[in-house]
Amino acid sequence: MPHPDLTAAPAAVDLDTTLRDACALRGVPADGARLLHHSSNAVFHLPAADIVARLTPGDNVGDRLRATQSITRWLADEHHFPATRPADIEPVETKTATVTFWQYYPQPNPAPDPRSADLARLLRRLHHLNQAPPTTLEAWVPLESLDTALHDTPIKAPLSSEERRWLLDEVNRVRDDCLNLDYHLDRGLIHGDAWAGNLLRGHDDGYLLGDWDWLAWGPREIDLIPTWHAATRYGRGASWSAAFAAEYGYDLSSWHGFASLLHMRDLVQLTGPLRRAATSNRHHHMLRQRFDAIRAGDPTPWTAFQPGASTT
Fold first, then answer.
1. Where is the Aminoglycoside phosphotransferase domain (predicted)?
2. What is the mean pLDDT of the segment spanning 16-21?
3. Alpha helices in the chain (DSSP H)
4. Cα 60 to Cα 207: distance, rounded to the nearest angstrom
5. Which of 172, 203, 241, 285 could disulfide-link to 231, CB 3.0 to 4.6 Å?
6. Residue 245: HSE in the Cβ half-sphere, 13 Å Cα cutoff
7. Partners of 93 in the beta sheet?
8. Is the distance from CB of 233 to CB of 270 less than 8 angstroms?
């Protein structure tokens, strides 16, 4: 598995301290912890316990993440839905992050390359659940992750004051646009960040859907747009979105709100680089490439970020 970019020694020390304090509080051994992925979240494998710890930044995310764990456990246990499962360990909230614990799913090397149809199959199943979840879900808020990152004071992103003001205004404009669209698919349980990179191989070699941080109640089109975004921005091409549409049973590109959601997804993709750009050259380059293209209306494909397979 490729190693993540660890150019930022101060950030790594802070992550390590947060992780070890949380593990000590829950009696989980942290010896030999290995960073698997670090973008918006930091994901560690804890080999002594053979589980995963996810560090989600922010000082007000604990309730949302507890609801997420309750619902993913319900999906797996009550509906046999192939979702990654939480470990039976309570989350730990700190001033800067919430640490949640999950089962570990070791991935083959090289990492699997799922098809868009694999993602479509799982989303179709998720979207057709006709039973309300056991925990109340927050309503989907467009660009919540980016808005949170922009207001997170520890972030020192390489954007000028004028660029940051423009981006905040754009977030508000696009949020209003997306909230006022006439969505054609029903509202219901949505994953919130449903792209193929969040598919993992399970113990039976089937695919699991992971990374549930943005689970919400909202329009189902939100789970479809990442596939069309990958086709355009990451060079997957028309066959990628066509295969998804054939499996899911709906062609999102024919809907009048398609361009609005595609632009929204562009902005979503700033979140991870924004959180890491001040301390990682790779994320700095990624943020500048994406931000400059969005502001200029440049449709040129972006460089895909390959941090290695996640495991939750």
1. 39-256
2. 94
3. 9-26, 62-78, 116-127, 144-150, 161-179, 221-233, 238-248, 258-268, 271-276, 281-296
4. 31
5. 241
6. 14
7. 98
8. no
Asked if 302 and 193 count as a contact pair (C-beta separation under 8 A), the reply is no
Q: Which two three-digit tokens encode residue 270?
A: 């700033």
Chain position carrying tokens 């747009």 = 225
Q: HSE (CB half, 13 Å, CA atoms) of 154? A: 12
- State the pTM of this model: 0.91
* Same domain? 165 vs 185: yes
Which tokens belong to 310? Answer: 């996640």
Q: How confident is the model at residue 110 (pLDDT cuts 50, 70, 90)?
A: confident
Residue 160 lies in a domain: yes
pLDDT band for 289, please (50, 70, 90 cuts): very high
Nearest to 117 by CA among 207, 219, 212: 207
How does pLDDT run across 189-221, given as a tens digit for each residue? 999 999 999 999 998 879 999 999 999 999 999
Q: 213 and 94: one domain?
A: no
Residue 23 sits in the same domain as residue 163: no
